[in-house]
Amino acid sequence: MTPVVHGPTVDDQTRCVHYRTELDVIAIRFACCDTYYPCHLCHDATADHDSRPWPAGSGHERAVLCGVCWTELTISGYRGARCCPRCGAGFNPRCVLHYPTYFE
């Protein structure tokens, strides 16, 4: 079953109104609601609760979605990748700046 990505997406590769470069092709499944959003700003704008990061030790959780091939990656697999291991789509290297928002 294909995951649903919530929030103000602008295309079918999970880009959103906040982040829409060629490399902005992932969505995050938020620990607080088990729901995929393109980014923390999309979550904050549309969810009815505060976000919270995945707790330490959650690296095995499939919580990152490649918007190009729709493969779900583990947190550990995503954090160590510059691109999708399945389709080779590049990931935005600046996303690392937001890791504390998503992952403890």
Automatic annotation (TrEMBL):
Pfam families: zf-CHY. Coiled coil: none annotated. It comes from the Bacteria. The keyword Metal-binding applies. SUPFAM superfamilies: CHY zinc finger-like. Keywords: Metal-binding, Zinc, Zinc-finger. Residues 9-89 form the CHY-type domain. The keyword 4Fe-4S does not apply. This is CHY zinc finger protein. It comes from Promicromonospora vindobonensis.
